[in-house]
Amino acid sequence: MRDVIIIGAGGGGPVVAKELASRGLDVLLLEAGPYWRPREDWTHFEDDANNPLTGYFRFGPEDRSRPAWFREWAQNSLLWQLSGVGGTTQHYYGNCPRAYPGVFADYNSPDRDAYDVAHRFPFGYAELVPYYEWVETTLPVQTAAMGTKEATFLGGAETLGVPVQTTKDTTGHSYRPQENAILQPGGNAARTTDTDSLRYPKATGCTMCGYCFQGCMEPVGAPRNLVAKRSTDNSYVPMALTADVWAPQGKAVTLVTGAFTTEIHTERQGGELVATGVTWRDVDTGEYSREDAHIVIMAAGCTESPRLWVNSGLPNPNGWVGRGYTDHHFDWLVGLFDRDTGSSKGPGSAARCDFPGYGGLENVGLPPGLQAFSMTFSDSGIRGQYTNGRGMTGPWDGPAGRLLGPELKDALMNGVDRLLNVIPITDDDVEPDNRVTLSAFPADENGPVAKVTFRHRQRSARTERNREFLVGKAVELLRGAGARKIYRLDWGALILHVQSSMRMGQSADDSVLDANAETRWVRRLFIADNSALANSLGGPNPTLTTQALATRTAEKIFQKYFGGDPWVAHESPVVATDSRISRAMIDRGP
Length: 590
Ligand SMILES: Cc1cc2nc3c(=O)[nH]c(=O)nc-3n(C[C@H](O)[C@H](O)[C@H](O)COP(=O)(O)OP(=O)(O)OC[C@H]3O[C@@H](n4cnc5c(N)ncnc54)[C@H](O)[C@@H]3O)c2cc1C
Hints:
By secondary structure, the protein is α/β, with parallel strands linked by helices. Helix content is 22%, strand content 18%.
């Protein structure tokens, strides 16, 4: 019998694993995908990495000759969620803004009604700040390294008439460098492109290679916990696997990969339904294993956590399991420039603007294949050919829609380094009809599969208003930066940031979790992934908040079920780059 079983080693699960194991609990971490070895398994070939069906970054088993795991998308959309240790943080850009204070219960400033007021967090922002600080120190989060694309973006942002933001707490319209979880360049890094000089330890941190999307493996030769991008495979998982080495009371987490959890077990105890353990299926052999635990934590992500809940036959009395799947209602604008924008270099996205009450803007740099993809994914049809009934026109150039033929060629013929991408990240409302249910397609080997439904064109009026506001700001920014042409893509639902499908909430009528992230209907069952978030945070990227919340959840579990003392207010965290972890990972890494 384990103390704790955690399902999923993505953005949230490893955080709880590391925190509880470092306090002496016996933790089993189950992950459906593999623990990749970057230098052996990964490349900079874009299709090899990013193809959602056959790439190494997909939702599927390690063996790429086998099909990806199926999900039904009921509309024009793409779910970019990954399996493997690190989960979708293997793709992520490491941007770590905090949520806007306006989305929390106690917010009372004059703009308090500008947010999703019906779906606030059930506690105050100030309560989460020490947990933010804990995670920011652990990863660590630092001011992003910047280059030409950020100079271009920030130059445009200067023309918007809003101030530079200098604190981590965002309450007003502003712009700034990102705070991100990518180690700043040290030694030769960012000073040369000579591969010999860029080996660890001559180079440390980000080498500005521009391939964050395909899994960070820089600099060559760095111990796993010193790899530049702090996806959890490089940060919290190394800490969890070596907790016995660096934490005085610590116990190393047991990580099982290729372990697809298919059922959560419960029983009635004292009139309450209580989680008692899980069954998982070995992805390679098809064998089932069962283990029991005092506490079960779901961290399988916004799509798989609701699927597993339903497949386990757990109760859903208010119907909110899987509902409220928010996605920052992204759009995409591309500016064409007559000068070098450095779009392919450095951390993928190192500058931002914030517009609390509406959302934010970020710059995004991409390698060529993804750049072409980003300009061909639209809900508005093909520019100049057909409009899908949208016919959107505005301050950008020509109709919205995807580029084809001569226009696409014109945009890409000088390489990606004459472009600047801006992504509006909308503060979207929690909407019950955007949701996960079970698909009517046949079950796969892990049970009935998930169907993700978005009413993409019927968002709330506030969500639509916010997106149009941000698109207007993006156009203004690109013109201010000197773009000669601006395209609006009007993206379909591209699910990169996703939140709230098993949300915590102030009301038991529209939430699955209480304020401690324990499920309302099954005791000893907690959730520690993005699905636990109460709302879309006002627009900021979600992972830091999920990790801060997961840290708080770990502390609540330790106090309530293991008689432990809280620690965040009284201790300083060990940093994930600690040399004891580096040494131990040489033996224990994948
Ligand atoms: C291109 C891209 C860029 C991004 N950039 C940023 C960024 O800059 N900043 C930011 O904050 N966010 C970013 N994100 C989002 C970020 O990746 C997610 O917020 C984060 O990974 C979510 O964590 P999670 O734990 O909810 O889910 P995931 O990270 O998806 O992890 C879920 C894990 O559970 C596993 N799993 C699922 N089902 C089971 C099961 N039944 N049994 C066992 N294991 C299971 C999966 O294999 C997976 O490893 C980005 C995403 C993408 C795609």
